[in-house]
Write a structure and sequence with these properties.
41% of the residues lie in helices and 27% in strands. The protein has 11 helices and 13 strands. The radius of gyration is 26 Å and the shape is elongated.
Length: 312
């Protein structure tokens, strides 16, 4: 449970970690109203903390430049929340993150009171998380660059590996999301002059550029990514005509796996994928006539599947 004193200290922590922060933003983070934030700020000012109010549309609160307090000790619930967050992060497939997380956990444990340290260590030993393990590892530095670029409206130079090889492009990121064990970014690709989604484990190089852009207001990155899965560039771009109706095809292929279109005499399937054998098995389950339009390697995958079944 939060107490008024702990809430006031939390406001101070937020002010120390932001050059300037608005009243509504503070209220949202604290889960209180703006009037309560003003009261907390006044209490800090009464204690001699040099907080200045900035008026105007871009206004808010800021500490006097150069003012810093020594780090505050974690409250029990803060320490537990930090440890839980680190344990979840370890499951999300960030490159070179496991040693970093272990280092942070060790530092936190060293400063915890004995009773709390015992609870945290017991949590490590017994906690089981229903969090999808990583389908692919990504570089944590790429997440940091994309987050900064999205927040500040800065373009990035992105080198991306797909079925077309490794290509370089300028990209305007609108957000980053993790779904199904993979990390993605969505935004405007200047090479294609279109809204695109990219898998971060296929990013070979990423650099922040000086060019700026204005991101669209209210863009829902995760919602857009889940609607666009089948169009995300991957190793193989596959096109197949299925000799069945659209309803049956949809029962076997979710939107995350393929784009389906009703055509004369059947259904057109398009899928960008990295595992041709898996796609061949999924299509074979339909038990309908098929015509592979490409790539030729998908036909080879069907031949391998046929040979395997014939030998059964």
């Amino acid at each position: 449970m939060y107490h008024p004193t702990s809430r006031v200290l939390t406001v101070l922590e937020l002010l120390q970690s932001h050059p300037q922060i608005s009243g509504p933003d503070l209220a949202a983070r604290m889960e209180v109203d703006v009037r309560t934030v003003r009261r907390y700020v006044a209490m800090l000012q009464d204690l001699g903390i040099p907080i200045r109010s900035v008026v105007g549309r871009q206004g808010g609160y800021a500490l006097r430049p150069g003012f810093k307090l020594p780090p505050l000790m974690f409250r029990d619930e803060e320490a537990m929340a930090l440890c839980l967050g680190l344990l979840v992060a370890r499951r999300l497939g960030l490159g070179a993150t496991a040693p970093t997380i272990e280092g942070v956990l060790a530092k936190v444990e060293r400063v915890l009171p004995d009773a709390l340290r015992e609870r945290v260590q017991a949590l490590y030993a017994t906690l089981e998380l229903d969090v999808a393990g990583p389908a692919a590892v990504v570089e944590s530095v790429h997440l940091g660059i994309l987050g900064l670029a999205t927040q500040r409206g800065r373009r990035v130079l992105l080198r991306y590996a797909s079925g077309e090889g490794v290509r370089e492009r300028e990209f305007e990121p609108y957000g980053v999301a993790c779904y199904g064990g993979r990390w993605y970014t969505a935004g405007r690709c200047l090479l294609r002059d279109d809204l695109r989604v990219f898998r971060l484990d296929r990013v070979r190089h990423l650099a922040l550029l000086d060019a700026e852009f204005a991101p669209p207001q209210g863009f829902d990155c995760l919602a857009h990514i889940t609607r666009s899965f089948a169009d995300i560039p991957d190793i193989w771009d596959c096109t197949v005509i299925l000799g069945t109706d659209l309803a049956l095809a949809r029962s076997a292929f979710p939107a995350s796996l393929a784009v389906l279109e009703e055509i004369e005499g059947g259904t057109l399937l398009r899928s960008s994928i990295d595992d041709l054998d898996m796609l061949a098995r999924q299509i074979a389950r339909l038990g309908c006539p098929i015509t592979v339009l490409g790539p030729p390697e998908l036909r080879t995958a069907f031949q391998r599947l046929a040979a395997l079944l014939a030998a059964a």
